[in-house]
Amino acid sequence: MNALALYGRYCATSIRGQFSYAGMLATMTFGQFFITIIEFLGVWALFKRFDHIAGWTLGEVALFYGLVSVSFAIGDTVTRGFDVFGSAFVRTGAFDRLLLRPRSLTLQLLGYELRLTRVGRMAQGAGIFAWGAAVTHFAFTPAAVAILAFAIIGGVAMFSGLFVMQATLAFWTVESLEAVNIFTYGGEAAAQYPMNVYAGWFRNFLTFVVPVGCVTYLPMLAAMGRSDPLGAPDWILPLAPLAGFAFLGVALFIWRFGVRHYTSTGS
Amino acid sequence: MSALTPYLTVFTGRLEVTLQYRAAAFAGFITQCWFGVIRILIFAAFYAGGAHNAPMTLANAITYTWLGQAFLAFLPWNADPDVTEMVRSGAIAYERVRPVDTYAWWYMRALAWSVARVLPRAALMVAFASVLLPLVGLGEWGLPPPPTLAAAGLFALSAVGMVLLSAAITLIINVLMTAMLTDRGPNTLVAPIVNLFSGAIVPLAFFPDAVRPWLRAQPIAGLVDIPFSIYFGGLSGWAAAGAIALQFGWTAVLILIGRAWLERSLRRLVVQGG
Predict the structure, then answer these.
(1) Whether A162 contacts A210, CB under 8 Å
(2) Nearest CA in chain B to A39
(3) Most CB within 10 Å of its CB: which of A82, A140, A175, B229?
(4) Domain limits at B234?
């Protein structure tokens, strides 16, 4: 069986498992939808008091907000195995079993769980995006749609890279490190607003170190047909999501290093 | 041994145990600093574009944000994890055998749990935002002391109310969890409500004028908005006294509801497992 078919089998099993608790799945999915809708109410309230933020209207911010929510939700859905890696695999010693199987570790961890409750978050992100697109008369040209799709895939790669790095740290810390949340959830929270609202040091960090700006802000500008108010050249905007793939590549490289240095905790 | 001894013992015991988790406290502090910075930068960008309509100054919004991050662990997002584990494992049966009032027993546990998580985080946050930031010349981005002695005194009183209210809401979530036999549903639904109505996402003063009085009057405002507005002087004098009275009043109401409801659901409880 090839890797893709095996991954499909993993996903199907995970989905069947989650549907056997259908009531719980529905509650949690609705909860994810509800929690993020309520967060957006906060943004809405601020725009009632202030006319704009660094020149952006609420509708425009909704586009940024929706894009990062969708990317993050998908990344969080597929990389659940890496997210809980420390507590579920290293501490328990379950990682030893994965090492014995004649399949790639990445595949097995991706197959650990396809977290369906995140569909609620994705739906909310898509909803906010659609609303923003309607009020700002966003032009869904083929080029814009292609850029958005590329941005989402790049964003999923970048957030997955963060979860892989979090898992790698667990080889040394044993537990899943909560502090990595500042880059995963914190990265998502920061990218809900366009990057030019932030102070320079913070913006540079979010562009060059954890490149969340490259998979949200820059391609979104390209999709809107705008130039970067901070002066990034126009040609770079639609290509910026490549940084997300590069980030994932670095994360996987560090992950391999971690795997080679893994010492079992025993069981 | 007085009648109160078991409750004090469970309080100090849980306090000491929870205080052991130093790495968790430090991780929480780092996370809360980071989110504080994001929020403050967003506020700063909003204010830079014209603040004629803003209900408070940027300095006050910054103060509010740091306080919110320092006291974040007082937000009752979850059922008490120990009680959840008891319900899951069936150990809750032992709780029924103890010659103590279950509500008071759980209340003291919840109180110790939140206080022990907040104390180290808040101390680190104050050291960072009130001492370190001014020392490196970023004082305007830091957490200043309350403007007057009266504000400090009223805040201290309101902070006590905040702690008591937080535990009362945790107990309501415990009861929900005990009735549903799982914490996942209640935890998922309660957290967003608490975040919005407490003023943790955005100070309640920023919401439209038409709904503001209602937002201030509901019980959850006492978790964040009332104490922090008192701290920077946004609520003072009789308005502050009224808000504190409301805070304590709601706490008493929630304790009475939680206690009656807990008794009822424990009577119907079917213990699982063996």
Answers:
(1) yes
(2) B201
(3) B229
(4) 5-267
Residue B218 lies in a domain: yes
For the stretch B95-138, pLDDT in tens is 888 888 999 999 999 999 999 999 999 999 999 999 999 999 88
Cβ–Cβ contact B182 with A under 8 A? yes
Q: What is the CA radius of gyration of chain A?
A: 19
- Contact: B34, A186; criterion CB under 8 Å: yes
Residue A233 touches partner B, C-beta closer than 8 Å: no
Asked if A186 lies within 8 A of B51 by C-beta distance, the reply is: no
Q: What pTM value is reported for the model?
A: 0.89
Q: State the ipTM, two decimals.
A: 0.88
Spatial distance between the Cα atoms of B19 and A254, rounded to a whole number of angstroms? 34
Contacts of A198 in chain B (CB under 8 A): 41, 45
DSSP conformation letters of B171-232: HHHHHHHHHHT-SHHHHHHHHHHHHHHHTSSS-GGGS-TTTHHHHHHSGGGGGTHHHHHHHH
The span from the CA of B193 to the CA of B182, in Å, is: 19
pLDDT of residue A17: 87
- Asked if the structure places residue B133 within a domain, the reply is yes
Residue type, B259: R
Total domain count for chain B?
1
Q: Determine which helix (DSSP H) or strand (DSSP E) holds A80, and give its type and residue range.
A: helix A80-83
Domain presence at residue B274 = no
Are A221 and A227 contacting, i.e. CB atoms less than 8 angstroms apart?
Answer: yes
Q: How many CB pairs under 8 A join A and B?
A: 100
